[in-house]
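In the previous chapter we treated chains in isolation. Here, by contrast, the input contains three separate entities that must be folded as one system, with a combined length of 682 residues.
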Amino acid sequence: MYNFFDQLILTLGAWVVGLVVACGNGVSKFCCGQPLSEAAAHNVAAGTEIVLICVTIYGVFALCFGLATWLERKMLARIQNRYGPNRVGPFGLFQFVADGVKMLTKEDIVPARADKLVHFLAPAVVLAPALLMFAFLPFGRNMAPTNLDTAVIAFFAVGAGSEMALFMAGWGSRNKYSILGAMRAVAQMISYEIPLVLAAVPVVMVVGSLSTSQIVAAQGADGFLDMSRWFVWTPWGFAGFILFLVAATAESNRCPFDLPEGESELVAGFHVEYSGFKFALFFMAEYIGMMAMAGLGVTLFLGGWHGPKLLPSWMWFMGKGFLIVCWLIWLRGTLPRLRVDQLMAFAWKAMLPFALFNIFTTAVWFHLPKATLLQSAVAWLVTAALVAAAYWVVSRFVCRRAGALRVYHYAS
Amino acid sequence: MDVTFIILSLITVVGAIWAVTLRNLIHGVLSLVLFFFGVAGFFFYLNADFVGWVQILVYVGAVAILAIFAIMLTHNLTAKDEPGFFSLRWLTGMAIAAAVGAVLWFAIKNNAAMLQTAPAGVTSSVADIGRKMMTDWVVPFEVVSLLLTAAMIGAIVIAMEQISHRK
Amino acid sequence: MTTLAHFQLLASMLFAVGLFGAVTRRNAIVVLLSIEIMFNAANLSLVAFWRYGPHPEQLSGVVFAIFGITIAAAEAAVGLALVIVIYRYYKSIEVDKMRSLKG
């Protein structure tokens, strides 16, 4: 029974592939009088499988995007003591459909002096990396779209493409707010990409592979309690997870790191000049990128699709991913925006040294003996002490002045 | 020649030509990004996945962004007084490039070893590359890491010079 | 079938394009980026030689290409920092105007 639900999507996919091949055979018999050759049938099956994977991932995550916008508005409303959307459907659940229809029917305005081609290309270019990032995440047992042995670095490389897209949007609009927002976005993303990658390095070190499938496999344990080997339970994994979450928040330009689109200073940052469906694409790219980051965090630190066998594996993945998304929304409802100097100081003076020291801590953990329970406990305590010491040193000495108040000299 | 090769070479050649000829510097950098993606595609095509991803990560994610920052910081969005297409400068440049290209072309054309086809089953797994880097190539690896550190510190010191003068 | 000659011809063509940009353009940033094109052409050539060569298990072409990318990144960082300093000094980044060796 469990296996049936666990592999339900794969079974459905195999059924659709079989159906398409059978239809192809029928068409071939009707046209040429003979069924498909073995090679042709194989090609048809492989092609159908690729199309199915794409359609499923994009369909599921487009739906998740809609649900995430609804969840965000509802949660923010709850935090701010309001109702939030409550008109369309039960609890306003279909608000995102109404929003989508509104976006589709709006007029598409292009500024007269805009760089037409760059302005036109930017929304598509910004969405492509966000969607591509899902190609490298295993969603459930036997449910990895690709099985690259370079998956983690591929994820970050694809993510690096979105910086250029944001710059294209800001520059193509020919608007001083959008160019300011784009330059801020690029500077912020390039700064926080370093702690983001360095936070993922310990996991790669311990597993000994860049493949996300193998990283997930290394965190699995047999039996009912399938969560004992998640990396987040180790001291270095916990520190890495926190670093990863903060850097991922900055990387997806979300509050408190939303300087690139800070409404009160830059109107809407790099997408000021976009309206209608192009704006919807930016919005979609932001949320889908956020979910991809959450998915990578789940894969690296929270055991991927592993979990107690109460729920199917893909449900564990989605559930953990949505938990991270909820955490991001909570953060947005709670924290005010940072200043640019605080943002940069935090990345370079706090997160970078801490992430580097975390790699050293992981090396210590890697070489400590962990054969018996006592040895594991000693290794755990030693690395925990190292992480705590690193945190103390970094917070006390390295970035002591990063959080200090700045003295403003008005009209001086 | 197959279709992948033709498409990728079109992308790279067109991207490279645009990058060196376009007057608008931002357009130049964007076509350079196209060129970088094309070269990364060639690396994937040649079964060097890791190099391809490193190419995208370093060139698209860092070098192109650095170039954009340099353009923005120097207020130089378009090269207005660039010489024209048939100026002496361009003709000289074309002659030099054509001469170098012709020499290379000649060397490749007259080499029988160049006509071999790709052997099957050549892969480069990350683990193998890492093992090579930590055994045979460990000295160059350490030298390059020192070079990167020196370049990072050097770039910061060079670019910060003015601030230190002011103090 | 694509032979090694195709890749080497393409790489030499890209190298020539980069060389053309480096000797023709006046803008220092474009000159630097043309040099990056030449670096890329060399990397492409190295990886193609590795793919078609007699000892692919040695991975020398791949490792060389990775070192090449690293060095090109360092070169770009220092070069663009120099461009910014030159702009502050000359208020221009045209390579023709940089004529004195004294700072």
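Chain B has seven helices and no strands. Residues 49-73 of chain B form the longest helix (25 residues). Compare these points with the single-chain example from earlier in the chapter.
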